[in-house]
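ESCALATION

Customer reports they have been waiting on this structure for their group meeting. Please prioritize. Original submission:
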Amino acid sequence: MAELQEVQITEEKPLLPGQTPETAKEAELAARILLDQGQTHSVETPYGSVTFTVYGTPKPKRPAIFTYHDVGLNYKSCFQPLFRFGDMQEIIQNFVRVHVDAPGMEEGAPVFPLGYQYPSLDQLADMIPCILQYLNFSTIIGVGVGAGAYILSRYALTHPDTVEGLVLINIDPNAKGWMDWAAHKLTGLTSSIPEMILGHLFSQEELSGNSELIQKYRNIITHAPNLDNIELYWNSYNNRRDLNFERGGEMTLKCPVMLVVGDQAPHEDAVVECNSKLDPTQTSFLKMADSGGQPQLTQPGKLTEAFKYFLQGMGYMASSCMTRLSRSRTASLTSAASIDGSRSRSRTLSQSSESGTLPSGPPGHTMEVSC
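Update from on-call: job pushed to the front of the queue and completed.
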């Protein structure tokens, strides 16, 4: 039998009339740079103007990845390390992205005048339909952190048909109680707004360690030219209403949800409680070791891999290549019957940084993962 030889065929794109290979390369590079920079838009809503940046082009029959950042940050400082991570490129090539900046949080935003009534978190959620209508997008996969996770959850409760999935990092769905309110007021007497926000974003261990990351974000927030606007967003977050999630009730998220929190995050207890209130057949719980308060900044690789599995579970990117977790980890699985007597089971995956696999589980399971 004649030995088969592997032949590599290079696809040659036809040039436009009068175009040289050099000018074609320059045009392609310019288009790629423009695409990487994104296109920024603003739209008027009943609660004021909102700015958002769109990357990529819409894909047929695919939702947009729609992000919303936390207090003290904008979309760049909150999400850039994640979406610029190498393994994330496979995802962003398959989805258009919409990164929202809360009002007054975008770069170069003017300071709101004294007495300006900043929108509540519920009103910020009500701005989202105006964005989707402007872009003519029908469905989204939301990725939110902290206050942004709350906003996307509130939107999903009122517009469930437009949300295909949610990745919620550091979500606290509960309104502040009287004790929390009193503690917040007391802290405000002894701490500055930037320090209070840093305590919201990062763990005390991280702040005490004063790493390069902490120094960077302390500098970003402390010297922010729109610090007065940030304080307004901060106040809206602290005055949020309870989402009233109820397992088996009407007030619940109808779409697949991945809850994410660091093992030392300030919001760990709140995320664990949120997980207990959501539908176990629709919810995955990812608890990340060594990630601190902002896993999308400190562990973008692990979060990217988990996000790929999440998208696969929704029926997207079926042929995606799972590398990081699949190669280097083995899984420990335990199954237990659900406490409400249903047929769904809860799976717990334990992973160390050296071993563990995150298999794509079938729908109908809650996965608690410690990476």
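Sent to customer with the following note: Residues 1-16, 28-35, 324-366 have pLDDT under 50 and may be disordered.
Escalation resolved.
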